[in-house]
Amino acid sequence: MLRHNMMPSGNPKELDDVLAYFVRNAIDDVFDGDTFDNSFGPTRNYLWENGVDYYTLRHRSIQLYIENPYVSGIINRMLRNEIFTGIIPEATPLASVIWPDMEQRDREKLATDYSEKMTEAFRLYASDCTVFDYREELTFGEFQNQCRLESMLCGDGIIVSHINQRTRLPCWDWINGNYIMTDPEYRVPKGHRVVHGVELDSQGRHVAYHVREFDGENISFKRIPVTGKKSGRQISWMIYGGDKLLNSVRGIPLLGNILYMLKDLDRYKNAELRAAVVNSLLPMFISREKEGTPARGVIDGMGRYNAPDAGTPASVEAEKKASADTQQAQDSHQPTAALLPGTVMDRLAPGEKPVSFDTQRPNVNYGNFERIILSGIAWSRGIPPETVIMQYTSSYSAGRQANNEYQINLKYLTFKHAKDIGQIIYSEFTIQSALLGQLDLPGFLNCVFEPAQWKLRGAWLKCEWSGLSRPSVDIQKETNAMRTLLQMGVITHDMVARQFSGLDFRAVQNKLEIERELMDSHGFKPTYSSEKNGQTQTTPEEEDKSEDLLAAEQEIEEYLANGSAELRELWDNYQDVLASTQVR
Question: N- to C-terminal Cα distance for the chain?
Answer without folding.
Answer: 77
